Structure formats: structure tokens, C-alpha cells
Amino acid sequence: MEKPVRWLWEEYVAALGSFVRAVDALNGIIGRATAWLVLAVVVICFGVVLARYGFDWGDIRLQESYVWLHAVIFMIGAGYTLREDGHVRVDVIYANLSLRGKAIVNLIGTLLFLVPWLLVILYFGWPFISTSWRILEPSAEPGGLPGYFILKSVIMVFAGLMLVQGLAGAARSILVLQGYEEWAPKEGGH
User: Fold this and answer.
1) How far is CA 127 from CA 76, 115, 124, 137, 161, in A?
2) 157/19 Cα distance (integer angstroms)
């Protein structure tokens, strides 16, 4: 390779690598922080059960709070799960592929399936969520939690985190296809 072309190529590889590292770090922090919400869900759910069956008392806000937190855990944690390769996959063929074959499958799957569906969610979700914000939509349950519009906003956070993690995965696949096998995902995640 000529010197200017080689330098440009090295900059391209470095930029892709920096992007992958940054997105992996972002979703790593978010995933670990979100995991603590599981403890909150368990404690609140236990409190609701104890109050209902031990003291014959219930509160719709407490019940909704653990359901809403559960939704947040799954939506916000999805990017981390993608980073850790924890989403469902049919491994009958994939598991036996070479690193290069896996990179091709991951790249095609991301560009043909993941990215378009996330763009659909962002496009059609925006009016749905902005309407909810405009009316400051509360829970549909009488006596329920206010701020349902905030919970609906998590849809956009979900799509955004999944999109950047998907693009980081695509960049990782491109690096592997270019011969940088050290960028291949580790077995069982990062």
C-alpha cells in the first residue's frame, strides 16, 4: 500500500475500533446500572405481595411501579444484551461457522433486519411518544402513576441504544472481515 493510502486505512480502522469501544463502554455502563433495577423490582414486588396477603392492603401505584421498572430493565438493557450476544439466535448453523462466516451473518443480519426495524420504531414511535408528552399522559389505571409519557419515551432510548450497538456490531464485523480477528466477539460476550 502506498504511504498515504496506508495512513488513511489505518485511520479508518482506528476510527471503527474507537467507535466499537465507545459504544461497548456506553452499553456496558448502562447494562450494569440497569441490572440494579432488578433488585428494586424484587423488593417492590415483595412489598406488594406482603402488603396484599399479609395486611390486606394494596396500592395501584406500587403495583405499576414494579411493572414499569420491569419494562425499563428490558428496554434499556437490550443494547447491553446485544453487546453480550445474549439475544435469541438459531445456533444450529451459526455455531459451526468460522469467524469470517459469523461476521458475514452478523453484518447482513444487522443491516437487513436490525437497523431497518429500529428505524421503523424510531419513525413511527416519535409521533406516538410526542403525543403522549403533549398531553402529559398519565397511567390508564385509576389512581395509577403519573408520567406514563416518560415510560413511553424509553422506547426511543431502547431504539437508540440498540441502533448504536447494532452499528458497533456491524463495525466489529467489518473489522473481522478485513482480517482484524482480534475484534471478533468473545464467546459469551465481552
Assistant:
1) 20, 19, 6, 14, 19
2) 19
Q: What is the pTM of this model?
A: 0.85
Pairwise CA distance, residues 37 & 29, whole Å: 13
Are residues 29 and 54 in contact, defined by beta-carbon separation less than 8 angstroms? no
Q: What confidence tens digit (pLDDT) does each residue in 134-171 have?
A: 999 888 888 888 888 999 999 999 999 999 999 999 99
Report which of residues 10 and 68 the model is more confident about: 68
